[in-house]
Amino acid sequence: MTETPPATGLDGRALLKGHALESDVLLLVDPELEVSLTAADVAAACDRRTGLGADVLVRAAHTSALSGTGALLAAAPGAEWFLDAYDRTGTPLGADGLAAAVMAEALLAGGLIADDAPLTIGTREGARTLTRTDGLWTVDMGPAALVRPADALADVDTEGWDTVVAVPGLEGERAALSVSLSQAQPHTVVALADESELDAALLAETPDCVPAPQAPTALDLVVLTDDGADGAGAAQARARVLLPGVGERPSSAGGCCAVAVALHEWLGPDAPEHYVIEVPGGRAGVHVGADPWAPHATVLLIVQAVLTGRATLGA
């Protein structure tokens, strides 16, 4: 008996579409890896002119169906589902928080997970847990860390910054802090004086950073609009994000979290533990805790995920 080879490409396959903070996601529910995905398949589906269009494509697969996940399942045996995520070029992604929220919403809508229990998923950066409360997903984004550039211009522990950035559209240079989430792509968070500066920044151009980052880094511009000192319990800020090789985006899970931990550092010992970050794509909550740099600390992202439709590529 000859085994039937796995299907290739996405033609004829039903894909769900959704978004979180206007970061749009195509989702293929493929528990047993029946579809053989290539980077070209992903890029074709994500193309906004000739495909369905999306920032990210996710295959929701059973973790046990993927090779190399034995250690992950040993550490997190409840991680039944895996976030097999790719950017619009077909490059594999790690623990994309917005894509994770959309996948969780799709699994819930499809009756594939319980609606009253935390959901642990596998990702290329390890297990992540999501919970849903009042229509919002709380996503474990992993630990935050200071990048500590080798040629930093200031002592981050005493000054709160390590880099200066010349932002196109703004005069002079701005102080910035280099942070990362779960050892993923680093972020350079730039503090601005007011909202007029945030609006005037030209993010079509790559800014000059000193020292130059050793790896491609996202740029996050932020202006604090409420420091939370009035007892409201949460600080509020507006932000914009520029992703390397992509350009300005309406949102970024890592960017929102990087902004929150940077603000927590800058606000000092009495800084709030919770932040509301407004980006062009919407509003996100970020919980950083009392000390986001502490061992075993984790950053939590709170967002709404919305399913917007279903489509078949090539139909």
Determine the fraction of residues in helical runs and give it as a percent range: 10-25%
Write down the Rg: 20 Å
Return the CATH class of the largest domain: Alpha Beta
Q: Indicate how many domains the architecture comprises.
A: 2
The global form is globular
Low-confidence blocks of residues: 1-7
* CATH arch. level architecture of the largest domain: Roll
**Helix and strand element order:** EEEEHEHEHEEEEHEEEHEEEEHEEEE
Mean pLDDT over all positions: 93
- Give me the CATH superfamily of the largest domain: Diaminopimelate Epimerase, Chain A, domain 1
Indicate the multimeric state.
single chain
Distance between the termini: 32 Å
Main sheet record: 19 strands, mixed
From the 3D structure, determine the CATH topology of the largest domain.
Answer: Diaminopimelate Epimerase, Chain A, domain 1
Count of helical stretches? 6
Query: Would you tell me the structural class of the helices and strands?
Result: alpha+beta
Write down how many β-strands occur, each being a DSSP E stretch of 2 or more residues.
Answer: 21
Report the sheet-strand fraction.
35-45%
Protein name: Diaminopimelate epimerase
Organism: Actinomyces respiraculi
Written description of the protein model:
It comes from Actinomyces respiraculi. This is Diaminopimelate epimerase. This protein is an alpha+beta fold and 315 residues long. The protein folds into two domains: 7-136 and 305-312, Diaminopimelate Epimerase, Chain A, domain 1 (Roll); 144-298, Diaminopimelate Epimerase, Chain A, domain 1. It has helices at residues 39-46, 70-75, 97-109, 156-159, 195-200, 253-267, and strands spanning 7-8, 14-20, 23-29, 35-36, 56-62, 81-87, 119-123, 126-133, 136-140, 144-146, 163-166, 174-181, 187-191, 208-210, 218-226, 234-243, 247-249, 274-279, 282-287, 300-303, 306-312. The strands form two sheets. The protein has a 19-stranded mixed β-sheet that branches. The protein has a two-stranded parallel ribbon with strand order 1-4. The longest helix has 15 residues, at 253-267. It starts with 6 loop residues before the first strand and ends with a strand. Mean pLDDT is 93; it is low at 1-7.
